[in-house]
Amino acid sequence: MPTRKPFVGGNWKMNLNRAEARALAQSVASALANGPAVEAAVFPPFPYLSDVGEVLGKVPGNAVKLGAQDFYHQPNGAFTGEVSLAMLKDLGVQVVLVGHSERRHVIGECDVLINTKVRAALDAGLEVILCVGEKLEQRELGQTDAINAAQMVYGLAGVKPEQMSRVTIAYEPVWAIGTGKNATPADAQSAHRRLRETLIHGLFGQAVGEAVRIQYGGSVKAANAKELFTQPDIDGGLIGGASLKAEEFAAIVKAAAK
Ligand code: 13P
Question: Does the annotation mark 100 as catalytic?
């Protein structure tokens, strides 16, 4: 079985001001400098990407990647309010989120748009975290694995096997996001295993499917990170609220070290 390097992302969502974003980036990068054998990234709001990129670049031994929470797939043109992949690359962005539940369920992005974005980001040479996850009513109806598989299969339509080394899947049950409730390690492991089986048997075969990292997201804290991350198919996490505190986030990243 291939060893997958754990990957932890800090999704800052629509939080912080400029000074706070700079200070958080500084503290996170310093805490993780030359750090554990875990990949880490932060996803600041658009207006602070440039500042955070600059701060990260100045920390000696910085190991934290710069990520963006969103983008529009068209290269340029009359798309008021949108931000292109080229603009993000210009600022040093290496990895983007696609299909986050807040974009699916609050903003209203559909699977077709999500798939278009995944392919555009990969074609632009970026790394992608594709988020999937069921709502509470879907879980209660026993649809968790079906929803996850459908969102992942739609999201990855047309993606080439050789591009999959730049794709991470994030399983984020919607009912666990920002609620303080998280899936039990066993439930999360079961959902992750089913996603991996779909990658292997439905999409890309054994070698690629075993190599893809699957993060867990939803109320991950330093206190519960280790028990989640030690599950065999959980390869790190995507962290919201707890990523806004440098010490807490650094502890979560360290908990992902195998
Ligand atoms: P919380 O960690 O705040 O539950 O958010 C998870 C999330 O949505 C990360 O993308």
Answer: yes
Q: State pLDDT tens for residues 207-252.
A: 999 999 999 999 999 999 999 999 999 999 999 999 999 999 999 9
Active site residue 172: yes
Residue 1: pLDDT over 60 = no
Q: How far is the CA of 173 from the centre of ligand 1 (A)?
A: 10
Q: Is 250 helix (H, G, I), strand (E, B) or coil?
A: helix
* Residues flanking ligand 1, CB < 6 Å: 11, 100, 172, 177-178, 217-220, 238-242
Measured from the Cα of 238, ligand 1's closest atom is: 9
- Give the pLDDT confidence of 142-180 residue by residue, as tens digits: 999 999 999 999 999 999 999 999 999 999 999 999 898
Q: In this predicted structure, what is the pLDDT of residue 181?
A: 85
Instruction: Kindly report the number of other CB atoms within 10 A of residue 244's CB atom.
Output: 18
Domains of the chain: 7-257 (3.20.20.70)
Residue whose CA is closest, atom 1 of ligand 1? 240
CA of 4 from ligand 1 middle (Å) equals: 22
